[in-house]
Amino acid sequence: xxxFSGGTxxxxxxxxxxxVCPEEDITVVVNTAEDVWISGNLITPDIDTxxxxxxxxxxxxxxxxxxxxxYRTHETMKELGHNEVMMLGDLDRATHIMRSDLIRNGxxxxxAIVELCRSFGLKINVLPMSDDPVSSxxxxxxxxxxxxxxxxxEHGEPDxxxxxxxxxGNASISPAVLKALEKEDEVLIGxxxxxxxIGPIIELPGMRDILRTxxxxxVSPIIGTEPVSGPAGKLMTAxxxxxxxxxxxxxxxxxxxxxxxxxxxxxxxxxxxxxxMGVSRADTLMKSVDVSRELSSTILGIFRDI
Length: 306
Prior knowledge:
By secondary structure, the protein is an alpha/beta fold. Helices cover 37% and strands 18% of the residues. The chain has helices at 9-17, 45-55, 72-79, 90-104, 109-120, 147-153, 175-183, 199-202, 207-211, 232-238, 245-252, 289-305, and strands at residues 2-5, 27-30, 36-38, 41-43, 125-128, 135-140, 143-146, 162-166, 186-189, 215-219, 222-223, 226-227, 258-262, 278-282. A hairpin with a 2-residue loop joins β11 (222-223) and β12 (226-227). The chain is globular. The protein starts with a strand and ends with a helix. The model has no long low-confidence stretch (mean pLDDT 95).
């Protein structure tokens, strides 16, 4: 199975999926449009969350970073007048240094992540969506800024006027992702921000065409009119997409076979009748691994029925 992942929502689902599916049978295609170079090193937040989850290093109290990490390097640099947009932990920084060194020595991002997976002893396949640079850029009344400057630097507070993925038109689906898509018929879109976490993956040239030939199931990250977490609401509004599970369905409608919405979502299911897709309900909040595992089992059942 192939899973499209970004942010923290999909890793929570992966935490349960690995208990009902062999890790070597899971391929995670990860958003790279939130990647950014900081202090000379490439930071790939969405990829690293998956790496740390499957290596047992992830701080699951925050769903990012390494558990028990320290921040002496970051704090010392700040004292010296060097302010980093993201607060990078010392153990986390080691991953960034290794990845960046591999890239500077001629590896593609995909090749560098394969090497990191090997170093972490992972069985799961973790694939960057593209080896080409793509950046989610947010236009606010104060100007255009990188997603990390908006979400981390500005705490997501500015109004959002526009969202775009710079470089997406010239980016290619990575060869490793294309190979995986040739072999697999089932694609799961996790409950991540549809605009800046999943959007960059599906907007890569040719990706929507490929998805129309697959069995595709998605989990909505919206309950009612609010995202479970993160800035998806502001970003969907800026794109003219209704902040609801209906809005998610409309964005994925040209390729989606089935949408899973939360059992607490008050939305009228009749609204989905205009789309050629199935809709079912489940507990999507995943406040425990047990709930994540149950949701994963439900999703596997949906794929069998498509």
